[in-house]
Amino acid sequence: MTQVIRNFCILAHIDHGKSTLADRLLELTGTVEKRKMHAQYLDQMELEQEKGITIKMQPVRMRWNSGNTEFILNLIDTPGHVDFTYEVSRALAAVEGAILLVDATQGVQAQTIANLHLAEQEGLAIIPVINKIDLPSAEIEKAEEELETLLAISRDSILKVSAKDGTGVENLLRHLAERVPPPKSADPDARLRALIFDSQYDPYQGVVAHVRVIDGTVRAGGKIEFMASDAECEAMEVGVFLPGRISSEVLGPGEIGYIATGIKEPEQVRVGDTITSLTFKGGDRPTGDIEPLSGYREPNPVVFASVFPENQDDYEALRESLKKLKLNDAALSFEPEQSGALGRGFRTGFLGMLHMEIISERLQREYGLKLIFSNPSVSFRVRARDGKEEVIYSAAKLPSAHEVESLEEPWVLVEVVTPERFLGILTTLVSDREGYIVETSSVSGGRLLIKFEAPLREIVVDFYDTLKSVSQGFASMAYEWLGWRKGDLVRLDILVAGEKVSSFSEIVPREKVYYIARERVAKLKELLPRELFQISLQAETDGRIIARETITALKKDVTGYMYGGDRTRKMKLWKKQQRGKERLKSMGRVEIPPDVFLKMLKKT
After folding, report:
1. Higher-scoring residue by pLDDT: 396, 251
2. How far apart are CA 372 and CA 598, in angstroms?
3. Residue 565, domain extent
């Protein structure tokens, strides 16, 4: 029986049935026994099961027979949320085809269009599929019309399935075999070239690299080299995903699998690196240069936050945990940072607020760490008066106003797909977020595609939640980087008892600074515990105090035990108490509890 390989992934907006379709494919091909099957089978993280979303790409190998041909189908299940687009882009570079899945009840969404553009850039074969055709609310003809317009294809090439009950899934498998091209022919006797598209850390096998083999073969025991890091090792084990790791004798051209490296230093194995062989025919070391694979562009973090352990003894544990997480999530970036209030920590970069939330949850659940996250912000580009330029990721590092000639911030192009009836309220929302609409077009079915430009700081924190709220859940969004633009921005500092707390500093628009300042000190007044002396809370910008609140001193009745006598005895005790409060106030600064920093992050 002839064996042929087909590598593909599933692209869809969040909640369009991508994981359910993957479940049916696993069942139909017999990859997973029915007694072991459960919903969202490829979403193996506890967080994915809880939230009902795909966070990590997951490869799986399936076998399917048609006539005298056995098809080896390598599926990479991908996330649908905009924060995990980098996961999608890496998966696309490892396959030749993509299923573009559209919910019949919702139609084409913003992230559907964004993922389609990524697939087209890679030159992949696109198979359009309409899902959830079994639902009473399904609008199949409308979805067909949208896909016909979007892809410039005939309706005959659009497949219809119900991932829930399995309708049309076997027909989809036949079209996969026919319409997805096989891997480009390569010489199995050539020197190994394999692309690392993902990795994870195993306490016994070290770094396990997820690879797509382009040329040559790799076997357990073979000597391999990582071309970017120059690290060398012996492949402890090679194998495929079923979807758990199953060892095999060899991985050949076109196959997707894993290589257990035994390497304990995570930074030596990088996503996008090329693995090549150090042993060749007859055990000889190969000669001559080899061209590394193109790899991936570096992800561009858009949200930055400082993370500190509650207990400074956990600093090294936090460092190791971040290294291991970066193996599994290449979009995460971090560097050491020092804070006077919170001690040693790391400045971390994320692709969005959901990405930040997931990393925070994983650090606490998988590694048992108790953490404090600072106020999330975006990056800014500062041009000093002496001509120097610098990109800063923390408001505390912004130079004084008299040293700054200009301050630039990142802007993004946002695409929103929404029903026509929400156009007015969406226009107001865009204006409130300092943006402006550049294009409005019809998607069909009474829906609009609205493109607008806005500062990134107004989009990443809570814009998605607000958009869902004002559109009753019908709108969807995706965004892409536009570049740097000048902004009229200032640094807002918060002083507690006259001492500046850098973790509370932020960069805000000049026109809104007074409103934001009053809001911050009022909220801090509610959160900080009272002391035995009066505490002043001040907001400062450009060397001026623009807002103030006062936390009154904690009162203690030092004369409560007295039941009579001359009033002068009470007066002496009150004066003694007052002198004590003055000494306390002058002795040191106010200790801010860790939970106050967390609560200040939440919007009022």
Report:
1. 251
2. 7
3. 490-601
Mean pLDDT of 453-481: 82
Indicate the number of domains in the chain.
Answer: 5
R_g of the chain, CA atoms, integer Å: 29
CATH number for 210:
2.40.30.10
* Residue 169 lies inside a defined structural domain of this protein: yes
Task: Label residue 75 exposed, middle or buried (CB < 10 Å: 0-12, 13-18, 19+).
Answer: buried
Strands 159-160 and 125-131 turn out to be: parallel
CATH number of the domain residue 566 falls in? 3.30.70.2570
Specify the residue for token string 């402890």.
236
Query: Is residue 288, in this structure, part of any structural domain at all?
Result: no
Half-sphere exposure of 256 (CA within 13 A, CB side): 29
Q: Mean pLDDT throughout 309-329?
A: 88
| Helices H / strands E in the chain, number of each | 13, 31
pLDDT for residue 604 is more than 50: no
Res 286 pLDDT > 60: no
Res. 601 pLDDT band, cuts 50 70 90: low
Top pLDDT among 131 and 464 is at 131
Give 476-491 pLDDT, tens digit per residue.
Answer: 788 888 889 998 888 8
Walk across the sheet containing 69-77 and list its strands.
58-66, 69-77, 2-12, 97-103, 125-131, 159-160
The CATH number given to whatever domain includes residue 441 is 3.30.70.240
Length of the chain: 604
Based on the fold, state whether residues 174 and 256 are members of the same structural domain: no
Q: Which of 419, 444, 414 is CA-nearest to residue 110?
A: 414
Q: What pLDDT does 279 receive? A: 65
Which of 48, 47, 22, 27 is CA-nearest to residue 37? 27
Whole-angstrom distance, CA of residue 45 vs CA of residue 327: 15
| CB of 419 closer than 8 Å to CB of 473 | no
Q: Which of 376, 406, 440 is the last residue before a domain boundary?
A: 376
Label the pairing between strands 97-103 and 125-131: parallel
d(CA 177, CA 186): 20
Q: Are residues 130 and 40 in the same domain?
A: yes
- In whole angstroms, how far apart are CA 475 and each of 155, 278, 454? 25, 52, 18
Q: Cis omega (within 30 of 0) on the bond before 309?
A: no
